[in-house]
Amino acid sequence: MCLDVVDKGSSEPIVKDEAGQLRVGVAGLGLIGEGAALRLIADDDYAFCGALVRDASKPREAMPAGVLITDSIQDFLDAGADVVIDALPDGEIGRALIEKALARGVSVISANKQAVAGSLDVLTSIARRTGAQFFYDASVGGGAPMIETVQRARAHGDIVEMTAILNGTVNYILTALAGGAGFDDAVRRAQDAGFAEPDPTADLSGDDARAKISILSYEAFGAEVDGNAISTEALDADLARKIAADGGVFRQLTSVTLTDGVASSASVAIVKVPESDFFAGVKDEGNALRIVTADGRDFTCVDKGAGRAPTVASLFSDLETVRAALPPRESN
Length: 332
Known about the structure:
This protein has helices at 31-42, 73-78, 91-103, 113-116, 120-130, 146-156, 168-178, 183-192, 201-205, 207-221, 237-246, 308-325, and strands spanning 5-6, 14-15, 22-27, 46-52, 69-70, 83-86, 107-110, 134-135, 159-165, 231-232, 249-259, 262-273, 286-293, 298-304. By secondary structure, it is of the alpha/beta class.
């Protein structure tokens, strides 16, 4: 049963009439998933169907009594959601969930870039076949509308180059380094601020940015750049010391360049940029994208790229799109 639970101080959950509400399940109750779940619970437009987690026995103090919390994909999908929000930290499990949900005709909104990257052809094909809606805007850029910007640029003409700051955590750390912080301290600050995971390897290694540029490439060129073909530079203590010694402005820039319609170069690198450069002004957890089309026109976007609030806002923007497209459900 799909429950919309509101905590009004009683010991029992209050089940509201589901008529007209969009039924939503959330996969993952970490920083992003919990934020999405709590917003769903508080919003009369949605009925929260419960959560898929790695460990269902773990106490979840933020979740009201009566909410389904399960580690079974089957049980999660059987709860009857119209839409699944994927905020899982695991790419393999997330991909399996997305495939199963879309195959059932359940729409999916994903913030899981590791699940989406490398599989967009397959996942979009399943969605087309079953009529499910599939959005993954929140997997790239946080609050920055990167996928929308790519789509707008592509509608204008052929895209020949994309350059972006795609990891708000690394950008936050680089900003802290420029302010005199040591590497370990900068990483801790990012963790304390809710931008970096307890294990920040995916951010610091460049894997996170690599997955995101693959997703943007699909939108820009109709095909994902092979992740193995993207050269990647990690941010570590040694590089941080060199950055501090130099004293300039450094950014993790992810770029793809096309030649004759084929990706001729793709990289994730820590780059020194002029202080007057577009990307130099993007500080802390900011993300930014610059696209160049064949006729030389630039398309850009900038916004916060890490943290709960901007990512949850992106998820709900897509959720509103799904809700607006569905006819009202009649009461039983």
